[in-house]
Protein: ROK family protein
Amino acid sequence: MKQHRGSGLVAGVDVGGTNIEVGLVNADHEVVDRAKASTPTEGPDAVLSTIADLVGSLEHRPAAVGVGIPGVVHDGEVLTVPNLENWHERVAIDDDLGDRLDLPVALGNDVNVGLRGEWRAGAARDVANVLGVWLGTGIGGALILDGAFFSGSRGAAGEIGHVVVREGGALCGCGRRGCVEAYAGRRSMETTAQAMVDAGRETRLFEIRDEVGKTKVTSKVWKKALDSGDDLATSLFDTAVETLGVAIGSTLNLLDLDLVVIGGGLAEKLGGALADRIADAAAPWVLQPNPDREFVVSALGDDAGIVGAADLGRALLAQR
Amino acid sequence: MKQHRGSGLVAGVDVGGTNIEVGLVNADHEVVDRAKASTPTEGPDAVLSTIADLVGSLEHRPAAVGVGIPGVVHDGEVLTVPNLENWHERVAIDDDLGDRLDLPVALGNDVNVGLRGEWRAGAARDVANVLGVWLGTGIGGALILDGAFFSGSRGAAGEIGHVVVREGGALCGCGRRGCVEAYAGRRSMETTAQAMVDAGRETRLFEIRDEVGKTKVTSKVWKKALDSGDDLATSLFDTAVETLGVAIGSTLNLLDLDLVVIGGGLAEKLGGALADRIADAAAPWVLQPNPDREFVVSALGDDAGIVGAADLGRALLAQR
Structure:
């Protein structure tokens, strides 16, 4: 790895449940080099070690590193990481990874970091009041309010996945009932589909899953099933969109926002049509319609996390 | 009215559906004189005229006036005022009332203004992230986020009354279904009680209403019915608390706040026990518990609106 301190290059790290992706990002928010590895399942130490190796493999040494991680982040520590295996303790990632790399490290929640990417270089550029809804295994959210990221008292703001839409409704992965994630999170949708198949309903979802060589009903599988007109997939997806409309409508009543950005795998596979459908589903719930309000999908797709994480690293440099 | 410009006295005006209350407030947020009149039903001109008369009747001429009004306020204009009669147009209250009084006039939404009173001199003093939930005929809300009032893109933020808790549930006054206001707003609760009486259920709610000489089931009537152990009143009130818990829980998941302030007539009649019940009802819905989070009732009661409105007027003076 060549030494290029002061090159203006910052590494952005996107830690996902399946893969860790690292990008070297320039001052124009362009990804100029990349590296990727499977997310280790042995816990924090293995994850940090993999991140350090990936950053070390980039063609230039960055001036700083930003990391987006799927958990509650507060003051540089990860408080909870529900989707990573064998990760039970709090870890001060900024210090630990900073020591390994001898670089400044900034840490953020993955969805906050994704929305930051869109805010800097994508669909939310210069918008003052924005909700990001990231559709994946679960549903993550992030908020820009009055032109700044809002993370709440202890870093836990943005959990639109656990806005309740049907009190006493479907069981959610969080143990509560009726959260929008219980209807529109991919893990819940797959569980529901499996239960309906067990009860005798037909669907091609699981055949398609096997055909494309996946172990889960991924966004790609949903896209194929919906395109093929599969009845059960269509019905579950309609419910997902409907409940997202309720949760986002409630959020707009609370926060009167300018823009909703839909991100994550489903947004990437389904594109603008998904944002339009969710906008239509939210409209009836909104008390004060705003003709200037927009619903869009992420413009950077998978790179939103890398670009946003790098920007977080860049912001840390600027503070020094 | 004596002339006391520069006296540090500001008038706070609380426009309600029933009464307009005006207070003369000193720099310590104390109400030193008061005036009150029924809210005219003939529309904006009569309301403004009454406000001007009330302000004129105060023992000193204030240096500025702040007005809290039950509607969506943006840039000094009232966009919609659902609970005042014969008020259909947008009115630039700041300019109009300013001309009548020859004083600077600031305008705010009534619940925002109530929470502002609590923030300056009551239960929310110096707290960074606060939700105000005002229980009245309807349910109003207001937000302090990162130490500043948050009103959204067009002044419509804070509408926790129209957070949906049961998709497809009870009909709300807004025409939608399942909003928390449909279960916990006084007007909805009275409508439901009446429907259940029509269907043969028994309750003393309407007898108590008549005994205390009211035309509506007011907060006082609810208090008496609950104290007497009335079954239907208790059941409707339990549902109100339960749904408030869902809506506030969803809001805490979205916004990770430090404090919830419960205000309005019911809060005044029922006191801290109401805040405790709502806290217990919200707790199961909260994803990230925060041991420092508190639920309290308004400390200023009815005066929150006057004190907050006066503070809005004072803030306008400070900008000049």
